[in-house]
Amino acid sequence: MGMKQSWRTGLSFGLTSGVITTLGLMVGLHSGTHSPLAVIGGVITIAVADAFSDALGIHIAEESAAGRSTLAVWEATFATLFSKAAIALTFLVPLLLLDLGTAILVAIGWGLGLIALLSWHLARNRGEPAWHVIGEHLFIAVIVIITTHFIGDWVATAFA
Question: Does 1 score more than 50 pLDDT?
Fold first, then answer.
């Protein structure tokens, strides 16, 4: 018997959001400030505030879905909260061990690797071609990274 759907929903949402939100924030803050303190503070903030925000969002979405038991709603809520916070906090490791520029590159590799692994697992479970699912999800992640980099550059020049 596989993992319950409520846990699968929360974990997959939390992991995806943890990677995409944290990478976007890190890349944008790095290009906008070049400040390790700003990037580290941003990651910790994402791990707390955005994890609770996502958990509440999943909670409300699950409550609005027909046929969800109270237990399933809370399982998805806690799975989202803990997976989002845990994934976001893993991005502190390169920030604390490496210079900022290198840490950002390592974080991008780590995040894209996590998205690829989750996408592969999802494709396998759904019987779909893995390359298609992985490619689609990595494409979206790369768009976020590129966009937030240029937003950070713009903020640095527009508000300096």
Answer: no
Instruction: Read off the pLDDT of each residue in 30-53 and give the average, rounded to a whole number.
Output: 97
Count of alpha carbons within 13 Å of 75, Cβ hemisphere only? 13
Q: Is the pLDDT of residue 117 over 80?
A: yes
| Cα→Cα distances 106→99, 109, 123, Å | 11, 5, 25
158 in a structural domain: no
Spatial CB neighbours of 138, under 8 Å, sequence gap ≥ 6: 112, 115, 116, 119
What is the total count of domains within the chain? 1
106: its two tokens: 């390592």
Question: Is 159 a domain residue?
Answer: no
Question: How many residues does this entry show for the chain?
Answer: 160
